Amino acid sequence: MAKNQPGKDNFTRNLVIGVVVGVLLIMVVPTLISKQTNTSAKIPASVSADRGYGIVFNGELSGVPVIDIYEDFQCPVCAKFEGVQGDYIESLISAKKATVVYHTLSFLGPESVNAANAAACAADEGEFLSFHRSLYANQPAENTGVWSNDVLVVLGQATGIDSKKFASCVNNMDYKDWVSNAATAGAQANVNSTPTVFIDGKEIDRQTEYYDVIKFKSAVERG
Amino acid sequence: MIKSLHSKYGAWLGLISRLIVGGVLLAAGLLKFQQLDKSQMAVRAYELLPIGFANVVGIILPYAEIAMGVLLIIGAALRIIGGLSALLMIAFTIGIAQAWARGLSIDCGCFGGGGQVEPGTANYLPEILRDCGLALLSIYLFLFPQSKFGLDKTTTSGERDNG
To answer: Which residues of B touch A108 (CB under 8 A)?
Structure first.
């Protein structure tokens, strides 16, 4: 236990330990705070905080099944789900036969955040569903830099959204805090993969019902 | 015989253990750090902790792994970090083993990623073996926290002097 070089070695060591632990503590605290729901976040008109910050269609109906869809626009399996079930779900919305809530998660990376923000901007223009469709139809590989805000504006224009308001909403990331709230709500709802679909609060069967038109339809009608 | 071999080469074994465990922790922490939402998802998918607590663990874990990895690589506070890392690896092993036993289909989320996966695609055995190996190296560091080229004092003599 003798100290050969009194003080010196242990001072350096303790300093290094202090710096490493200190820096990481300073970083973790704001991160934990940023994951809290930000109640002052700007949210699109069609979003309901009570429904997990999802974009709601037919929220006023009662006695119809409620379909909650958790998705990430960059997730290839979500594009597959959209391809198989998208038409049916949109027909339920237009026929007012179900309440549909889209939860746009963003765990795959910054381009998911861009896409979710742009989708919320499209929702303000009444074009969420068509933009949703365009995103999946033009889905690039994950985080390859394709979905910059500029590209998303162009994609919106190609979908028929050509207002200046949409472009500035996308470029300014107006709904960034809302995207974060939606992610937090998804975490609180214990959603552990995308797509995840709940019908009346219960997840449908992952092995059989997601990618089968007939089985999905009967799951919806079962309610 | 073993004792004399250990006093001769133990510090080198300490160095190797330190670099392996530290390197793995640092890599795992950095990969998770880039996708904290997914890290939270990975912890939830073990269905072991209450959801709110799992979400906090999912954020803190990457930071803790980075801190432990850095300290192991530079060789500071080896006994404490070795002990913590052994406990962490044992916790990971229990988590993976219970997921396997309960028939969950999840990505272990060890190096980023995580969450549910297609049934039948999860492969738990190699992950359990890896974590057991890392646990053994960590326990070694806890028991013999002296190693070559470390920042802790008396890093090369066989004597222990650690905080």
So the answer is: 35, 38
